[in-house]
Design goal:
Elements lengths: L2 E3 L5 E7 L4 E5 L12 H6 L4 E5 L16 H14 L5 E6 L1 H13 L4 E7 L19 H27 L12 H12 L3 H13 L3 H5 L5 E6 L7 H11 L4 E5 L6 H4 L1 H13 L1
Parallel strand pairs: 3-4, 3-5, 5-6, 6-7, 7-8
Antiparallel strand pairs: 1-2, 2-4
Helix pairs in contact: 2-3, 4-5, 4-6
Length: about 280
């Protein structure tokens, strides 16, 4: 399997499929590049060079104790793009991957990235603060941390229905197969416990409002209106408002797992944006 080594010695597993304009896919927290089951083969099969990788601590990459802050995660991405000599890419950030993408652009610029897609992104800021009163209660972080430490598998299993179906989802009638839902839990369990906790801490507590507002490249924002992991009004709508000239595509009724539940639509939207 192909690996690259980052500046701090962490080995990252990556895939590099297809030829043509580059698209780089950054996944959700506690998943790895295998979450792009529907997107990566489709994009590579439609005239694009599709690059994916397992974030540190996840999947087939190394599992260091530290490095789950946005600065380090962005440095990992910078090292990979340089190693593969990726240029003029469409950078796709999903959930926490959106935060990684924004931090990469704020720190490393647009020399290798021509376009940005933020899909179900946790940007610009999740946590409540004095100047952000409609954010999520900081106690949510403590609750999630305690649940993960007590029984991570049970925590992930309980999230399956709202992840794919939204707040009113019937666990016995999901918009994906039972097999797919179980597979995704297994994928998340293949992330180190330390990485899972620290990546969630990063996405929950980091204020990226200024970074998001400073973006100056063609940007597509895709967000489900029934997203609980990255609430629609707090994340999708607000991100679109902050990014000058961004294109906003709300997916009515879609939850956080729209990469699977709305795969065909997402594939078509990403392909069209990449080829513009």
């Amino acid at each position: 399997m192909p690996y690259t080594t980052t500046r701090d010695g962490t080995r990252l597993h990556y895939t590099d499929w297809g030829d043509g304009p580059a698209v780089v896919l950054l996944g959700a927290a506690m998943t790895d590049s295998r979450m792009w089951e529907y997107q990566a083969p489709f994009l590579a099969g439609h005239g694009l060079r599709c690059v994916t990788y397992d974030r540190r601590g996840c999947g087939r990459s190394d599992r260091p104790w530290t490095g789950y802050d946005y600065d380090t995660l962005a440095a990992d991405l910078a090292d990979l793009l340089e190693r593969l000599d990726v240029r003029d890419a469409l950078l796709v950030g999903y959930a926490v991957g959106g935060g990684e993408a924004v931090r990469y652009l704020s720190g490393y610029g647009t020399g290798r990235v021509a376009k940005l897609a933020l899909v179900a992104s946790t940007t610009p800021y999740l946590m409540r603060a004095p100047d952000h009163p409609d954010g999520l209660d900081p106690a949510v972080l403590d609750e999630v941390t305690a649940a993960i430490r007590k029984d991570r598998a049970a925590f992930l299993g309980a999230l399956t229905a709202p992840f794919f179906g939204g707040p009113d989802a019937d666990p016995d009638d999901l918009p994906v197969s039972e097999e797919f839902a179980r597979w995704l839990v297994h994928l998340c369990m293949d992330t180190s416990p330390r990485a899972g906790l620290e990546v969630f801490r990063t996405l929950f507590t980091t204020d990226q409002r200024a970074e998001t507002a400073a973006l100056r490249l063609p940007t597509l924002v895709v967000h489900g209106t029934a997203d609980l992991g990255a609430p629609y009004a707090l994340c999708g709508a607000r991100t679109a408002e902050l990014v000058p000239g961004s294109r906003f595509l709300p997916y009515e009724g879609a939850a956080h797992g729209l990469f699977a539940t709305h795969a065909e639509r997402l594939n078509a939207d990403l392909l069209a944006f990449a080829k513009e």
